[in-house]
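Late entry, S-adenosylmethionine complex.
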Amino acid sequence: MDRLIDGFGRRFRYLRLSVTEVCNFRCTYCLPDGYRKSAGPAFLGVDEIGRLVSTFQRLGIEKVRLTGGEPTVRKDIGHIIARVADVPGIAKVAMTTNGWNLNRHVSSWRAAGLTNLNVSIDSLDRQAFTRLTGHDRLDQVVAGLDQALAIGVPTVKVNAVLLRDSLENGFSDFAEFVRDRPVAVRFIELMRTADNAAYFADQHVSGERLKTWLAQEGWSARVRASDDGPATEYEHRDFAGRIGLIAPYGAGFCDGCNRLRVTAQGLLRLCLFGQGGVSLRDLLAADAGEGASDLLAGRIAQALTGKPLGHDLASSQAGDTRNLAQFGG
Ligand code: SAM
Ligand code: SF4
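Prediction complete; structure with ligand written out below:
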């Protein structure tokens, strides 16, 4: 079986697939004015997604994360989950969501095959949450997360962007949140994109602030497994859950990169902060012909030879990424 290995010996087992650029939230660092429709091809359909994932699986991909935009604004998201879960060899079907409709749908998504759920919650303070997202929905989002735990979604995590404004009580609020919940809350350092330069200058804080707080409060770093993602996680004997840090500006962040991205329009992106991409769409059509999957596998493997060693964020180069809703983060 072919395997995806790049020129730096990194092996790829994880595909992040954006299923839409549309989002219903207006997170201040991502889409502060809300989603604006732009011209372009329709988003990939369920059958195209099925063919795409089958080919990636042949190349060694074992985990697929559905993201966006907000993946759950698609009415057929349950079908998408089921189609991806049905591909033999795909062991994990993950989704990153803002959680707006989780409490209504998580049971059916779990039944369709969802195994890993990341819910984005940047603040546990209702007013701050409303200010950050444009929606007074914190209670519903937390209810959805609790329901996911109650029905036994195997892995549930929280993503929280580290922002200067929410430093004050943020860490202790989230620690309390995981006291009895077996959930990892991972703080993500705010990333600079083409659209958020001024916001970034105002709100970016280093993950060192979190590390200092964790050390003061008696949390200790877990030993990392070789196939761990980019988060360093910390644990504490009095707490059921964990707290983690994803520091894209930290040294060595790209060394263990194990993920590829495909946009909602079928463009393979080799780096979140790169330029352009390789279109896969012509080979995903129902009438692409016999051998389309082999051609697709060849195109993906060829593209990977051009994957750069790392991003260039340190020199404020965010590639052509306007915001992370374009590619799913
Ligand atoms: N809409 C879904 C959500 O918010 O979970 C999925 C897409 S969103 C782009 C994926 C993740 O990227 C979210 O956890 C979000 O907080 C994070 N994100 C978006 N823009 C970011 C930025 N500039 N820096 C760091 N994280 C960001
Ligand atoms: Fe939407 Fe997610 Fe971006 Fe917030 S972070 S605006 S929920 S895509």
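The mean pLDDT is 90. Will revisit in the morning.
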